[in-house]
Amino acid sequence: MTGFPDHQGGGPDGDGDRAGPVEPLLRQPPGYLDAPPGAFAQIRRRAARRRRARAAGGALAAAVVLTGSVYLVGAMTSPGSDRVVSPPASNSRTSAAPSTPTPTRGTAPTPSPSRPAARHSTGTRGGTTATTTAGPTPTRTGASATSGTSGTTPMCTTSQLTAALGGGDAGAGSLFRYLVLTNHSGTACHLTGYPGLSMLDAAGKQIGAPADRQPMSYAPVVLRPGGSASDTIHTVNQQGSCLPASVKLRIYPPGNTASLDFVGSVTDCDHLFTVTPLAAGSTGNPAS
């Protein structure tokens, strides 16, 4: 019987107990499965903390539920009160509203609201009615005529006045002439508003319709002896159809039924023939 060489045999003197080259890969050392030191104690402590936290949370939830139940049952079973409690009455009396203080001497009284400006209806021309509003007009300074309140000054009569056609102006196809009324009497008087004005031919017959009133505000004009007031006559310069030129003009001073006739040439073209209210001075209204 043939035997194995010594390096392959397992005799008493052989190397049979020596590990092969792959044995360390197939068989792990005996200490591989051992738990690290203290691992189980740490796991037990964590589990105990979780149990205590769950127990505390459950106890807190139970306490909240119990408290809410007790409060709800008490609110449902307690008798309500239907009596309305009013606030305590005050012992102090309501003080009376303070009376309006009486103005003392030397104190200016509060001005009362001014009345609305009066509206004056004017004559019609061609089916159109012009309306003017009387309002305050700035006072013109002058030695013989002023605009403002008339006070106790009487209205001027036709016999106190003389009339004349003064200067004028032109522009953009329009003609403007000044109609001047002068107080030749020895006493002061006033004029307020619009005069009536018509054109006359040589025989004294009226040409066309009287002048329309141009809407403007106005105020009384006080004429001292020798003082003058004037208005502005507005026509156009040979535009459209024209009436014959006047030889004379007839004026009715404001508030008078007697008229004054005086020499003056005015032409009504394109149905434009208007006058303004009287103002202080002899240069029309507004003053030029």
Automatic annotation (TrEMBL):
Name of this chain's protein: DUF4232 domain-containing protein
Record field: compositional bias (Low complexity): 86-153
Record key words, sorted: Membrane, Transmembrane, Transmembrane helix
Record organism: Actinacidiphila cocklensis
Coiled coil regions in record: none
Transmembrane annotation, as ranges: 53-74
Pfam family, one: DUF4232
Matching InterPro entries: DUF4232 (IPR025326)
DUF4232 domain segment(s): 156-278
